[in-house]
TrEMBL record:
One of its GO terms (molecular function) is oxidoreductase activity, acting on the CH-OH group of donors, NAD or NADP as acceptor. Belongs to the short-chain dehydrogenases/reductases (SDR) family. This is Putative oxidoreductase. It comes from the Bacteria. InterPro entries: KR_dom, NAD(P)-bd_dom_sf, Sc_DH/Rdtase_CS, SDR_fam. Residues 229-409 form the Ketoreductase domain. Transmembrane segments: none annotated. The lineage of its organism: Bacteria, Pseudomonadati, Pseudomonadota, Alphaproteobacteria, Acetobacterales.
């Protein structure tokens, strides 16, 4: 993997001085999750527009974490809710309370465009009071289910607000909009809120996520959410796939690591290290389905399937060979579709099961020389759209992550100038790490994320390229 030498340089005293004098970007390394860290970056500054319905869900999410709460305004009964849930709470006094670790603003009560004023009132005073590496979450309602046009317009406006706040908050602060269905309760929201208020979401910013009411009964929250779950990860021998396998194993899952036979040695050492098992298979070979199904049948199916294996064969369409087109189609799109159908047909996805695709920001924004790759990665988004209702009917979910620039062998092969642009042109000013993608997938795959279905979540530090 290519080291980000600029990031290292800009964080040495001489580098900080020179980059400052020259007006160059001054990214700071992101603070990521480490074992034993609190689930939520506290204290959490809470606010609400009048008529918001999620104040109790916010306080309930903080209960059971060490995070204290600061509150702004009287639109919700914050002291009463905090007392009921055993959360330490104090009124926020700008300049006196100290900085907050994160902020959550309940905007579900904004019912017309004039009501957007509540965003100004809260964030104008508070945004500077959030410490570096903090988090901001705006909670909204799904615009398409709003009662009238005014509410729909106002809720849609939240998207432009949060995406812009993500671009201007800087200091490694990540900002998201979470749209919560009217019938989704606090339990449906907590895995999502905790993820976005934690260090795990360090490279996820500017995202809009939908949380619906789960169609299954949620299991109790557990410290190791994936304990005992069987997780199939394709393309696991290296890069992002290896990080996904390691993250699931760390959380107690039984990992089945799949990769091509040529990667056999890496696959074996990974499976041994993680106490998991391995499947040395080329997923483009239709005969691989039978091997996967047999593994599933022998061990009681899979709870989670992560379609991570992917390749690039970059060339402009006029110069691209048919083989380059075909290989990318086969690995990135046709194989995941075929394997998913085989697993669903055989009933091999467990109850409250999860499928997670790996798309790319190239599939959203397009990229020069990547017509084949971007078609497949947009196709992964299509797979999520098409299958989400079918999986919901089985009590399962399908979502995808869309990584931006992640430091792997794939991106180390990009020519220098384009690689530097990819690294710097995002709100965090640096590339992500494979673990950033892995953490996002862990959240989507949590048993308590049953209301998170049909989402595409970019892990791109809010890339300035594309959406
Ligand atoms: P990588 O090349 O380091 O790893 C990909 C793995 O997939 C390899 O171990 C490879 O052997 C395996 N694989 C390839 N073809 C296979 C096949 N036919 N059967 C089984 N396994 C196969 O790539 P990475 O950077 O870790 O990317 C992982 C995923 O993330 C890919 O889907 C990629 O498109 C996507 N992605 C990566 C980035 C990035 O910046 N690195 C950005 C966006 C999306």
């Amino acid at each position: 993997m290519m080291a980000d030498r600029y990031l290292a340089f800009a964080n040495r005293p001489v580098g900080r001085f020179l980059t400052g004098r020259l007006g160059l970007p001054q990214p700071r390394p992101l603070l990521r999750h480490a074992e034993g860290q609190p689930a939520v970056i506290g204290p959490v500054l809470a606010g609400s527009a009048p008529g918001g319905r999620l104040a109790e869900a916010v306080v309930a999410t903080l209960a059971g974490t060490p995070a204290a709460m600061l509150f702004e305004g009287d639109a919700a009964d914050w002291p009463g809710l905090a007392a009921r849930h055993g959360v330490m709470a104090a009124r926020f006094l700008p300049g006196q309370s100290g900085r907050a670790g994160s902020a959550v603003f309940d905007a579900t009560g904004i019912a017309d465009p004039a009501g957007l004023d509540a965003l100004y009132t809260f964030f104008h005073h508070c945004v500077r009071e959030i410490a570096p590496d903090g988090r901001i979450v705006v909670l909204g309602a799904p615009p398409e289910t709003c009662a009238d046009a005014d509410a729909r317009i106002a809720q849609r406006a939240l998207e432009g607000f949060t995406r812009s706040l993500g671009k201007e908050a800087r200091r490694n602060i990540a900002v998201q909009l979470v749209r919560v269905a009217a019938d989704a309760d606090a339990a449906a929201l907590d895995s999502t809120l905790r993820f976005f208020l934690s260090r795990r979401s360090a490279y996820v910013s500017g995202q809009v996520v939908h949380v619906a009411a789960p169609v299954v009964d949620l299991p109790e929250a557990a410290p190791r959410a994936h304990r005992g779950r069987r997780v199939l990860v394709t393309g696991a021998a290296r890069g992002i796939g290896a990080a996904i396998a390691e993250a699931f194993a760390r959380e107690g899952a039984k990992v089945v690591a799949l990769d091509v036979p040529q990667a056999g040695a890496d696959l074996l050492s990974l499976a041994q290290r993680l106490g998991g098992s391995r499947l040395a298979l080329d997923i483009t070979d239709p005969a691989s389905d039978a091997v996967i199904l047999e593994d599933a049948a022998t061990h009681g199916g899979y709870d989670v399937v992560v379609h991570n294996a992917g390749i690039t064969r970059d060339r402009t369409i006029a110069r691209m060979s048919r083989a380059e087109w075909d290989q990318v189609m086969q690995v990135n799109l046709l194989a995941p579709l075929r394997i998913t159908e085989a697993l669903l047909g055989a009933g091999a996805l467990g109850p409250n099961g999860r499928i997670v695709g790996v798309s790319s920001i190239a599939g959203i924004a397009g990229n020069l020389g990547q017509t084949n790759y971007a078609a497949t990665k947009a196709g992964v988004i299509g797979m999520v759209d098409a299958l989400a209702p079918r999986l919901a009917a089985r009590g399962a979910t399908i979502n995808a992550v869309a990584p931006g620039f992640i430091e792997t062998r794939m991106t180390a092969a990009i020519p220098f100038a384009i690689r530097e642009a990819g690294r710097r042109m995002n709100a965090m000013g640096q590339g992500g790490l494979p673990e950033d993608v892995a953490e996002t997938i862990l959240w989507l795959a949590e048993p308590r994320s049953a209301g998170v279905n049909g989402n595409i979540v970019r892990v791109c530090g809010q890339s300035l390229l594309g959406a």
